[in-house]
Amino acid sequence: MGGAWPEVVILGGGFAGLAAARVLERARVPYLLLDARNHHLFQPLLYQVATGFLEGPAVAYPLRALLRRGRFLLGRVERVDLEGKRLLLEGGDALPYRFLVVATGSLPSDLGVPGVREHALFLKTLGQALRVRYRLLEALEKAARRGRPLDLLVVGGGPTGVELAGALAEFLRYTLPRDFPEVPAGTVTLLEAGPRLLSAFRPALGRYAEEALAQLGVRVRLGAQVAEVG
User: Fold this and answer.
1) Across residues 133-150, what is the average pLDDT?
2) What is the pLDDT of residues 72-120, one digit of tens each?
3) 163 is catalytic
4) Contact, 48 vs 167, CB < 8 A?
5) CA distance 141 to 160
6) Could you write out the DSSP letters of every residue in 148-209?
7) Considering 55, 90, 163, 170, which one is annotated as catalytic?
8) Residue 205 pLDDT more than 90?
9) Amino acid 111: pLDDT
10) Domain extents for the chain?
């Protein structure tokens, strides 16, 4: 590939990859950031895209604009040649490096629950957020034709689940009567397998979240572990 051999290659343009880039910039170390997308996705706001409160571009920032001193390369890695210190890219190119920072993030897990992959909707990427939105609107149109309420279920009491459940409740409370007056009021239920919400944070924050969701009309069920999705 053309260009000088980068001192450091950062694989991934998420939060960890950008944090590594900032450290290298302060140390004035040359680097190249490689990602399969040309934008950084601000995942904490995906729930607002899923519920229609934000459009996709509002949570997708061009990576080239975020890098102050480093270079950016759009590409997908097929294999890492550790011995030769090369990244083998899709299409046949090879990218050499001296030091490699792997910050590729994670994938959603089905936790071994049967039916999750086939029937549940994940919320990890922009495409998945838009899919949730389209499925929500599709379900609302069906409910409008039948004159039936729309009941929504969110599984997982972490930050994304709590925020999504709250946004869905606000959607049903404020947007539904205006845009779908023929659809009766439905419910939003949040299931969490553990004993409290937001288990990664202080217990007081979990209690506050549960009270706030209750005020929005969300039904929170703790200790509710999903056995199968059909």
Assistant:
1) 93
2) 999 999 999 999 999 999 999 999 999 999 999 998 888 899 999 999 8
3) yes
4) yes
5) 26
6) ----EEEE--SHHHHHHHHHHHHIIIIIHHHH-TTSPP--EEEEESSSSSSTTS-HHHHHHH
7) 163
8) yes
9) 87
10) 8-102, 116-222
116-222 matches 8-102 in CATH topology? yes
* Residue position matching structure tokens 């890492």: 80
Give 25-37 as a DSSP string.
Answer: HHTT--EEEEESS
Rounded Cα distance, 224 and 138, in Å = 28
Q: For 114, list phi and psi in degrees, rounded to 5.
A: -60, 135
165 Cβ contact list (under 8 Å, min separation 6): 154, 188, 190, 213, 218
| 227 conformational bin, left if phi > 0, alpha if psi -120 to 50, beta if neither | alpha
Task: For domain 116-222, give the CATH number.
Answer: 3.50.50.60
CA distances for 123 relative to 105, 154, 217, angstroms: 14, 11, 22
Distance CA 100, CA 223 (A): 42
pLDDT of residue 24: 96
Q: What is the CATH code of the structural domain delimited by 8-102?
A: 3.50.50.60
